[in-house]
Amino acid sequence: MILVRSLLKLLFFHIPRTLFHIAGIFRVVRRGRRAFRKALKKEGLPEEVVDVLTEEFFVDVDWKGIIFRREKS
Hints:
By secondary structure, the protein is mostly helical. The protein has helices at 2-42, 47-57, 63-67.
């Protein structure tokens, strides 16, 4: 009974909570990128410069590689 309860708790509580946290991280990163682009445009920079600066200063992380990486033995 304890095993079943633990599995249900994992399935219905811990896994969804972790997925919502990951989704929140993605949302914050994307919101920051959009705000940075908007601020650059508001300053009157040309679109080409905005594109270059956004790509240079945006932290591009391989999330799938980090989350699903396998340890090599």
